[in-house]
Structures are given as C-alpha cells and as structure tokens.
Design brief:
Strand content: 25-35%
Number of domains: 1
Pfam families: PqqD
Strand order of the largest sheet: 5-1-6
Largest sheet: 3 strands, antiparallel
InterPro entries: PQQD, PqqD_sf
Structural class: alpha+beta
Number of strands: 6
CATH architecture: Alpha-Beta Complex
Protein name: PqqD family protein
CATH topology: Outer Surface Protein A, domain 3
CATH class: Alpha Beta
Distance between the termini: 14 Å
Length: 90
C-alpha cells in the first residue's frame, strides 16, 4: 500500500488569490505556497497519496505527470520536514 499524507491539526491556512499561507500554530511559523502548492494543500484535507496528488494536479493544470511528480514528491517531503503534514495512520 502506498504512503498517504494529510494535514496536521496544528495548522491554519489563509487564501491569498491563488496562493495561500499556512500557519503552524505550535511553532509560530508561516509558509507561503504558490498556486500549485495551494491546490495540493487543499487536497491534503483528506489523506492522499503522491499518485493521487499528481493525478489531481495533472487534471487541474493540464500538465504531464513527468513534469510534476518529482516536484510534488519534494513538496511533500518539505511539508513533512516543516511539520505541516504527516503520514496518515502514523
């Protein structure tokens, strides 16, 4: 079974046009996300796998998987390192 990711409970997000700012309420940090990052963030309200996120981004932005899969994988690792998302079920 593939790993799935979900937002942590200590975050709040503020929408700014197509971007958003994610606030970590425990660490008092703010992370600005671009349009694609904001789209992925909204998807992570529910547990999603890398494959599911890639498919959603491809459909929303009409781009190929090869162009986004590595970027989304890095994005998820960055959000994990910042404590903004977690691996679902852990």
């Amino acid at each position: 079974m593939s790993r799935t990711y979900i937002q942590t409970t200590q975050t709040e997000a503020m929408e700014l046009d197509k971007d958003c700012i994610v606030l970590d309420l425990e660490q008092y940090t703010a992370t600005q996300l671009n349009e694609v990052g904001s789209f992925c963030w909204r998807q992570l309200v529910e547990a999603r796998s890398l494959t599911e996120l890639v498919e959603s981004v491809m459909n929303e932005f009409e781009i190929s998987a090869g162009a986004v899969e590595a970027d989304i994988a890095l994005f998820l690792e960055d959000l994990l390192a910042r404590g903004l998302i977690r691996i679902a079920g852990e």
